[in-house]
Amino acid sequence: MVFDAPPAQAVHAWMPSSPCGPGCIEPTDEIGTAGVVVRALGVAGLLLTYPVGHLATPAAHREELQRKYARVLLRCMGMRLRVVDNRVPTEPVPAERAVAARIGAERAANAAARYADTGTGVLVVTGHVGWSDVVALAAVQPLGFVARADLIDWPVLGALARLMRVIPIERERLRALPGIVEQIADRLAAGERVAVFPEGTTWCGRAYGSMRPALFQAAIDTGTYVQPVRLRYLDRHGTQCTVPGFVGEDSFGDSAGRIFRSRGITVEIVLEAPEYPGTDRRDLARRCERAVRGAGRPRHGRDSATWIEATTTRVQDPAPVDAAVPDPPMPARPGLHRRALAVLRGRSHGAA
After folding, report:
1. What is the H or E stretch that residue 133 is in?
2. Alpha carbon distance 288, 301 (integer Å)
3. For the Phospholipid/glycerol acyltransferase domain, which residue ranges apply (predicted)?
4. Half-sphere exposure of residue 75, counting CA atoms within 13 Å on the CB side?
C-alpha cells in the first residue's frame, strides 16, 4: 500500500519543507534491551566527558581529539563508518586481489580522508537525513555546522553544539538569512570548514528535496571551493536504510531510541570532486546537487513529475530545483566580492 503525504505548510515561499513522515521509516535488525542500555550509557559518557577533554587538550591537538570522539560516538550508536574518496584516482588490481584491495582501500580512506588541509576554508554540502549526520561528518574531519536554532537548547547535544560553534538558523525568519550567509562567509574567509544542508530540512534518505541556492552565496563571495558529500545509511544487507531519518513528528528521544535499537547500520560518506564556486549560486547549487545525488538522481521529482517514490510512502517535492522559488536577497559585500574575484582569477590562471 502507498500512502500519499501532503506537502508540509511553509511560513514563506523560500522556506524548505519535507513531507517525509513515519511511513518512510522501515524497520531493520534490532538488538536487545540490555544492548540498548549499554549504547545509551556509552553515548552519555562520551558526551559528558568531551567538554573536559576539549579543555584539557592543547589547541593544536583538539581537531584530532574531536575526530576520534566522533568515531567512537558512532560506534557507541551501533554505526560503522565507511569513507569513499572519489577525489583520489585508483589503480586497477587483479581479480584475485580485488577483495583484499577493496578492504585495504576502505581502511586507508577511513583513516586519511579529509575535506581540506588545516587552515583551508571549504564549504561542505550534503543531503540531510537526521541529527546523526553531524556526528558522521565530524568523524571524517571536524567542522562547523549550520543547524536548526533549537539544537542549542537540546539536552547534552546543545552543549556539544556550542563547542562545535554551530551557526544557528531559524528557517521561519527569512530576513535573518543574509546574516547567516555572512557568518558562513566570514568563517570560510578565516580558513575554516563549514558544513551546510542546502535542502534546509531533513528527508528520509530515499526521497530528498532540492538544494536551495542561498547558502552557496558564501562560497561565491569568498572564492571558496565547495566539497559535495554523498551521505547515506545502509543496513547489514547493503540496502539503503531510513532508520536514522529524523522526520515528521519525531522527537529526539524517538529518533535516538530507534537508532540505538538498530543493528548493522553503516554510514557511508562519499567525497566527490570539489566544485569551483563560479559566480552564479543557482548554477553552483545544481552542480553540487548532481554530484551529491549520483546514481540516485532518478528518484528526484524532476524525473517523476512532482512525486517521489519512497518505498511505502509517496511524497511530493515542494520545490524542484528549477521551480520559480523566490531567491532571498543577499547582503552587498563589495569589498569581499572584489577579493573573491581576485582569488578566482588567480586560481583560474593556476589551473590553466
Report:
1. helix 132-140
2. 17
3. 122-234
4. 7
Q: What are phi and psi of 304, to 5 degrees?
A: -140, 55
pLDDT tens sequence across 174-201: 787 899 999 999 999 999 999 999 988 8
Cell numbers linked to 157: 547535544
Instruction: Determine how many CB atoms are found less than 10 A away from the CB of residue 164.
Output: 19
Residue written as cell 511524497?
315
72, 53 Cβ separation under 8 angstroms = no
Please state, in angstroms and rounded to a whole number, the distance separating the CA atoms of residues 160 and 271.
Answer: 25
Using DSSP, state whether 17 is helix, strand or coil.
coil
What was the pLDDT predicted at 295? 54
Of 20-34, 178-192, 227-241, 267-281, minimum mean pLDDT range: 20-34
- Closest C-alpha to 90, from 112, 109, 111: 109
pLDDT digits (tens, 9 = 90+) for 278-322: 999 999 999 999 999 875 443 433 333 344 444 334 444 444 444
Question: Strand ranges (DSSP E) for 200-264?
Answer: 226-234
Q: Which three cell numbers stand for residue 281?
A: 549560486
Query: 259: which residues sit within 8 A by CB, 6+ positions away?
Result: 77, 78, 79, 132, 243, 244, 265
The three cell numbers of residue 72 are 567512537
Rg of the chain, C-alpha, whole Å: 20
Instruction: Indicate the helix (H) or strand (E) that contains 79.
Output: strand 79-85
Which phi and psi (to 5°) does residue 315 adopt?
Answer: -120, 155
| pLDDT tens sequence across 242-261 | 999 998 888 888 899 999 99
Rounded distance, CA 280 to CA 116, Å?
Answer: 23
For residues 18 and 20, give the distance between their C-alpha atoms in angstroms, rounded to a whole number.
5
**Where do we find the cell 511505502?**
312
Nearest-angstrom CA–CA distance, 283 and 313: 31
The domain spans of the chain are: 80-89+98-252+263-292
Which of 25-39, 65-79, 87-101, 210-224 shows the lowest mean pLDDT across its residues?
87-101
